[in-house]
Amino acid sequence: MSTHSARLAALREQLSQMRLDGFVVPLTDEHMSEYVGAYAQRLAWLTGFQGSAGAAVVLPAEAAIFTDGRYTLQVREQVSADDWQFVGVPDTSIAAWLRDHAPAGARVGYDPWLHTAAWVEEARAALAAAGAELVAVEANPVDAVWPDRPAPSDAVMTVQPDAVAGRSSAAKRADVADWLGSAGADATVIAALDSIAWLLNVRGADVARTPVALAYTIVHADGTADLFVSPDKVTPPVAEHLGNAVRVHDRAAFAAALAGLSGKRVAIDPAFSVAAIAQAVEQGGGTVLPLRDPVIVAKATKNPVEIAGHRAASIRDGAALTRFLRWIAAEAPKGGQTELSAAAQLHRFRAETGVLRDLSFDAISATGPHGAIPHYHVTEESNLAIAPGQLYLIDSGGQYQDGTTDVTRVVPIGAPAAEMRDRFTRVLKGHIALATAVFPRGTTGGQLDALARLPLWQAGLDFAHGTGHGVGSFLSVHEGPARIAKPSYGGTGPSEPLLPGMILSNEPGYYKAGDFGIRIENLLLVVERDLPGGEATMLAFETLTLAPIDRDLIDPALLTEAELMWLNAYHARVADELAPALGGEDLAWLTSRCSPVVR
Residue ranges of the Creatinase N-terminal domain (predicted)? Predict the structure, then answer.
């Protein structure tokens, strides 16, 4: 029996002991985070799946793992089909699958600290339709059979200085207090880790690649706050920074504090707060107001200091990436380089800036067929040699105190095939269409998504992931609330209006299963723009990312004059802004790769 088969069997035995017939295992933590600490990686431990989004359901006679289109290939590589059914979302939801597969009379368990209230209601109704029952557990059964489960991180918190944050925590909390007054609420629970970090101007190291600390915050109508965090994380400088208006409590006291909000009207974001939070408030005699996290939009609309910081980080990061692109172009054709060695080399170039705090995610270093897996994660077992005739895709980013970066480039190892150049150029055309979009206030990412897909659609092609996600300011590389995507990708994100100051990615792609993958990703800043003769101020995008786009993969005959002008203007800007940060052969290579593309 394989390791993961044995783990599945152990979980089924544990469920039997708990008088449960099934259990739902999401890939999240008690803060509804996308990226979670090692202690919360229950799905990966149970199934072997290494993606960043998914869930599993275990029943006595069958089990299913749920992933979206980004992981269609990856999940089949990493998870045994002997033990698990592969189910695609959003085509099929967990609730719908439970309705169709749970035996009548079954008791299916869930951890109320890992699901939203809306999910609980949907799953409960679906199971009721099947004559089954959804049961909250007090202790997670996966934890009971995970003998070497890591402990939560003990890393200390750090201060994000006002000079980098652009606004003080006191000013941000005053805004929340004003919002509470207008909402008729006494307090709000902030459970999302990046919201807490942004609100209090603190950072942490409890989640790999995301500088946040495991904590909860309750903000009151007078602008004071209660922070629930392991006391050992609060160093004297952090305590001094927080001041008397932020009271620090042990994280273990959070549930009791919720129960103590008796008679209070408490705003709780149903999308970013687990069901257990609202349940604790209501059981303690408080009234829950299901309102959006008051921090989420303010955090997403960067202030001038944050924008200036990201521009500086983009130059620094772009220079490191340029050094890498020159290196990979020279070294890969010689042989001896692998997906892991290339990712490590790029990490070294970023580290040589002297100010890299972390990567913003594990690099997607993918050659040949692995490039066709949009969120491929290289391991020692999957590591491939980078060989001539392949396309090498590198999607990576850095965490700097003044900005978070995310960029994807594709490099041909040797002369690319005509099909590769055609597909790459179509992806580039979509990338340019989105980068040059001008649109009125109120426009959503879902309304812009088709611009990036049209050149592919015209050839009968598409890609099975969103076109763009928000990016934080020395925070999460995937930040809400806005997304550029089809309505079926990313929940309500595609329906969120874009606002000046938001930073989003622009990353259309194309993936040929078993052969190659293409993605071109830059980060965009939403800006205001007045057009000659226009009657209203419009919105547009400023491209922030600075790195050459591989000219050997471009078929100029497929580009319009306007697209060619954009490409050459972009490359001229890349050369101009990165030149001071480079020298010698790196600078000479950059200059040659940014020379005008002509028909």
Answer: 7-138
Residues 381/410, Cβ–Cβ less than 8 Å? no
Burial 340-377 (b: 16+ CB within 10 A, else e): bebbebbbebbeeeeebbbbbbbbbbbbbbbbbbbbbb
Topology match between the domains 158-293 and 301-587: no
Both tokens of 584, joined, read 């010698």
β-pairing, 22-26 vs 107-110, is parallel
Q: Are 339 and 379 in contact (CB under 8 A)?
A: no
Burial class (CB in 10 A: 0-12, 13-18, 19+), 204: buried
Contact 394, 411 (CB under 8 A): yes
The two tokens of residue 96 are 């719908």
How high is the pLDDT of residue 69?
A: 82
Residue 468 and residue 452: Cα distance in Å, rounded? 10
Q: Within a 10 A sphere around the Cβ of 37, how many other Cβ atoms? A: 22
Distance of CA 40 to the CA centre of its chain: 16
The domain 158-293 having CATH identifier 3.40.449.10: the answer here is: no
Quick one: CATH architecture of 4-145? 3-Layer(aba) Sandwich (3.40)
Q: 301-587, superfamily in CATH?
A: Creatinase/methionine aminopeptidase superfamily (3.90.230.10)
CA 189-526-454 angle, to 5 degrees, is 110
Cα–Cα distance for residue pair 283/426, rounded to 1 Å: 56
Give the other-Cβ count within 10 Å of 598's Cβ: 7
CA distance 26 to 40: 10
CA dihedral (333, 337, 341, 346) in degrees, to 10, reads -10
Query: Hey, what long-range contacts does 128-132 have (CB within 8 A, 24 or more apart)?
Result: 129/99, 130/98, 130/99, 130/100, 130/102, 130/103, 130/104, 130/106, 131/104, 131/105, 132/21, 132/98, 132/102, 132/103, 132/104, 132/105, 132/106, 132/107, 132/108
Confidence of residue 491 (pLDDT cuts 50, 70, 90): low
pLDDT more than 70, % of the chain:
99
Using DSSP's 3-state secondary structure scheme, residue 299 falls into helix
- Cβ–Cβ under 8 Å, residues 250 and 231: yes
Query: Residues 287-314: pLDDT tens digits?
Result: 999 999 999 999 999 999 999 999 999 9
Contact 131, 104 (CB under 8 A): yes
pLDDT category at 85 given cuts 50, 70, 90 is very high
Rounded Cα distance, 50 and 377, in Å: 7
Give me 577's structure tokens: 């802004």
Q: Is the pLDDT of residue 490 over 60?
A: no
| 321 CB neighbour count, 10 Å cutoff | 25
- How confident is the model at residue 181, as a pLDDT? 98
What pTM did the predictor assign? 0.94
In angstroms, the CA 483 to CA 60 distance is: 38
> 487-493, long-range: CB within 8 Å, 24+ apart, which pairs?
487/446, 488/90, 489/68, 489/69, 489/465, 490/466, 491/271, 492/271, 493/445, 493/466, 493/469
Instruction: Provide mean pLDDT across the span 494-506.
Output: 97
**Helix residue ranges per DSSP H, 260-355:** 275-283, 296-300, 304-331, 339-351
- Least confident span in 216-220, 376-380, 434-438: 376-380
Closest Cα to residue 339, out of 297, 288, 306, 373? 373
Q: Would you kindly state where each structural domain of the chain is located, as residue ranges?
A: 4-145, 158-293, 301-587
- DSSP symbols for 233-269: G--HHHHHHH-TTEEEE-GGGHHHHHHT-TT-EEEE-
